[in-house]
Here is the input.
Amino acid sequence: MPVIPPPEKQWYVVHVLSGQENKVRDRIHRNAEAEDLSKYIFEVLVPMEMVSEIRGGKKTETKKKFFPGYIIINMNLLTEDNQLQEEAWYFIKEMDGVIGFAGTKDRPIPMRQKEVDAMLSQIKEREDSVRPAISFEVGDIVKVADGPFQSQDGVVEEIDPEKGKLRVSVTIFGRSTPVELEYWQVERG
Here is the structure.
């Protein structure tokens, strides 16, 4: 028999209509209060991250979901003897915008504690930083959009995703010169 996490440690992945994540989260909070089901539902997350990109030559930052089409719910859904809390199960399953729980068709599977810990630290890490929207590969041709080499074409030689920087080889006076730039300073060529 599987070990069932205690009620406050049960986390579930719920598939929802893409673009409806925030509405479903808000609907769950609102309806749980109204139907007195707050004792089962502890937290509903729509993990977001800040993404920077160049639009019209200007650097912009926007919030984007990093699990589009999914929400993460911390809720008491399984009892200690592995029985479904049917009231809570149907409450989420029948909610407008919900497609279903990750797991089997009629049996939700709680995330393992190490998966929960990794996910929560990833959420925290991504909330505290800004990620570039565009990812590059070595050999890509790019155009410098900002700085002293603006409008120059170059080739990506090296990528440092930790720092969000690229080493781009640009041609200056007929010679290839490596230049270190941040992701947001270049556009696809």
